[in-house]
């Protein structure tokens, strides 16, 4: 018996039987770190994972600091725009502010950093989970002796 999950929002359930004609399954994207960092089976693997975590955590912290600072600037610009819009006395200032805001928000360098930061956060969370799982299982195994 074949089963598939419909991708249409109104049909989000597991269906059984033949796959409908014309159904094109969506590919599932699996992050590279899921494959690269499977379950830990040895203390040596744990140490390697920990080294990767520590190394990339520094990069993540720096990116996170930069992204947060930029997002705070966006909030400040939002606030300034709403004040100017309510004021209606300086249309040129509003236009300049909107232009600056759009440029910064759509800056490819900023977007790339933001994407990298989100990727590192997910990767580091995955590695941390693997380390915690190993530690928990390793401790349980040790206590059985």
UniProtKB/TrEMBL annotation:
Ranges for domain OCEL come to 31-139
Record GO biological process: bicellular tight junction assembly
| GO cellular component terms given for this protein | apical plasma membrane; bicellular tight junction; cytoplasmic vesicle
Signal sequence coordinates: none
Family annotation (Pfam families)? Occludin_ELL
Matching SUPFAM superfamilies = occludin/ELL-like (SSF144292)
Which InterPro entries does this UniProt record tie to the protein?
A: ELL/occludin (IPR031176), Occludin_ELL (IPR010844)
Recorded superkingdom: Eukaryota
Sequence similarity: Belongs to the ELL/occludin family.
Write the protein's name.
MARVEL domain-containing protein 2-like
